[in-house]
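A quick aside before the break. I want you to see a complete sequence-to-structure record at least once, exactly as it would be stored in a machine-readable document. Don't worry about memorizing anything.
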Amino acid sequence: MRKQTDNHLRQNIALARKQIGRLGKQNCQALTSLSQDHGFSIALGDLLLLDGKWYVTHTGLIRLANRARCSGIRVQPMREFCDASVSRWVFRATVYKSPRSRGFVGYGDADPSNVSSLVHGAEMRVAETRAVNRALRKAYGIGLCSVEELGWAPRANTAGPPDQRKTSMNEKKGQHNGQPRLRDRLCLLIRQHQLDAGLVKAYAADYCGTATLRDASREQVEAFINKLAESAATDRNALICHLNSYARQPEANS
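That is the input. The structure line, written in C-alpha cells, reads:
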C-alpha cells in the first residue's frame, strides 16, 4: 500500500509539473497531502490548480465517496427558497457515510448572478451539484473549495455608480461586470477537459482571424471561449481531432 501511495504521489507531481510548470513549495505540500490522505488523481480530473490554489472537482469527490463505500446521498430542494421564474434554486444534500450515520448536511444555491454565463439555464443542476459537493467535503474532511462552488459572476456592488475609467481598465485586464478574466476562463476549460494549451491558442488565433491570440479583441476571445466550451461538452473527441490538425500545420508548411 505504501508503495502504491508513493507511486500515485509521484505521478500526480509529475503531471502537475507537466501541465502547470514549476510547483511552489506550498502547492507541492498540499498536493502531497491530498494525494496521500484522499487518493485524488490529477490525471482523472480530481484536482485543478486555479490562480495558484488547488480546487477539488465533483468527479473527485464522487470517486472519493465510492472508495470510502459511502452508504448514500439524499438531495432535496428547499422549496421555500426556490423561485423558478428567476432561476433561483437552493438544495440540501445529506451524505450518509454508513447505514447508521446521522448524515452530513450541505447546502448549495445558484442563480444567474453567481454562475458562469456558460451554464445559464442550468442553475438547478448547479445548485444540486454544489449541495452534494459541500456535504461530501464535510463528510470526508475536505477543506478545499470545489470548482463547481465557484461563483464566476458575483453580485455587483450597488453602493454607487461605476467609474468609467475603472471599467475601462478592467476590460483591458479581461474583467467585466465582476466576471473572471477571460484568461482564467480559458485556463479552466483547458484543465477541465485536459486540452493542449499550445494547440488551443493556435485554434483561437485561427478562429479570431489574427496572427496571435494576443491580437484578438475581447469580443472575439469571448466568442471563442464559448465555442470551445460547447465543443468540449458536446464532442470532445472531435475537438481533440480538430486541435491536432494545428500540430500538423508546421510539418505541412516545411
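Two observations worth writing down. Residues 174-253 form one domain. The first strand starts at residue 47 and ends at 50. We'll return to this after the break.
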